[in-house]
Structure formats: structure tokens, C-alpha cells
């Protein structure tokens, strides 16, 4: 579960604080477990700042806190503050932006580039798939989805053009246009070298940072007509 530490402090020496953060980032390069940081300045109080520091998990945050550079940085930070900074520790229970990142990795790195290590990182082990061209359960689980992606990649050189993406709650819906050139057998059709296109959308439901369920809707009849599998 993603973990965020919130650091609330007052300082009249923010330029020095900024330089301290830069030095810390340089000194801990390759060692720190921080995935994202953000600093906000209070519009109503020119000396009031809030840092948001994101980690993959609470456990990774604890590893980061044990670095000797982290302890030194904290001591120097306190010296630049007016009073002791306040800390808040948060387990992230909802984050649509992170959900989009997971979904886009699935499309761009796994489906398009064939990096199946990414599939294991993005897809839950008990993933449930719903595809209008497949029998129920055919692409369930990591192995099922790996086989389906391999089937499409073996049959086509293809690209996805994502036209719009909407995240709400635990779901991310992506509208896309797909274009492929048939290079291998697909559903009994021998390679034709034809370029074919279709449009569709995919909705992924995420759970604890992983894709737990997916629904694929696309213009299968148009694809089949272009491939000569059914009459115009």
C-alpha cells in the first residue's frame, strides 16, 4: 500500500531548505526509496510549508528513515525551521493518478513492448478478464492475460492511440484507436499483410495498486470484416 509522509513546518530560510533537499537527493541517489515529493507553500502564511513525501509502502519508508543521510538531513532541517516540524503518516486508500500510471504501464510497456515483467507488477494474481471475443475466464490471471497478449502480438504489428482516459474511484477507462498489420495467423486466418484498424475502450478496476479486473469493448465485427472473416 502506498505510504505518504506529510511534514508541516515554518521557516524563513526556504532557499537554504531547498538547497538541503537537493543535497540530500544527490547523496542518497540509488539508495533512497522515495518515489515522489512535493512541497507546498501556504498562500496565507509566507513562512508556512508542507512537504508530501511518497513511498511504495510504509516498510519502504522505514528503510529510507534508517539511512544515515536521512538522519543528518533531518537534523539540518530542524535547524532551519522555526520550531519542531510536525509529521503525519498516511496510508493511501485512494489515488486516481497512481491508478492511471499503472494502467498506462500495462498498455505501453506490457501490451505494446511485450515486457511481461511489467504484467506481473501491474496485474493482480487473481485478475478477472472480460473480453467480447473470448470465452469467460480465458484470459483470467497473469498467465491467461500473458497468453492473450502474446496471441495478439504474434498475429499483428500494432499500435494503440489513446484518445481519452478517465479515472473515477477505483476504475480507469481508456478510449483507444488500434491499428495493426497482420503478420501471423489470427483466429484461423493466415497472414495477409493487410493493415486493419478498430476502435474501442478498456475499463480496468484496481485494488491495492494492482489491476484486479478488466473489461474490453471494441469493434470486433469491423476487424473481422477487414480480415475477410465475415461478409461486408
The N- and C-terminal alpha carbons lie at a distance of: 50 Å
State the total count of DSSP E strands.
Answer: 9
CATH class designation of the largest domain:
Alpha Beta
CATH fold name of the largest domain:
Nuclear Transport Factor 2, Chain: A
Strand content: 35-45%
CATH architecture of the largest domain: Roll
- Spatially, the strands of the biggest sheet line up as 5-9-8-7-6
Query: Largest sheet at a glance?
Result: 5 strands, mixed
Please trace the helix and strand order, writing H or E for each element: EHEEHHEHHEHEEEEH
Shape, per Cα inertia axes: elongated
What is the share of helical residues?
A: 25-40%
The protein's oligomeric status is single chain
Mean of all residue-level pLDDT scores: 93
Class derived from helix and strand content = alpha+beta
Can you summarize this structure?
The chain has helices spanning 14-27, 58-65, 68-80, 96-112, 116-122, 141-155, 220-226; strands at 3-10, 36-41, 48-55, 86-91, 123-131, 156-168, 171-182, 195-207, 210-218. With 232 residues, the chain is an alpha+beta fold. The strands form 2 sheets. A 5-stranded mixed beta sheet has the order 5-9-8-7-6.
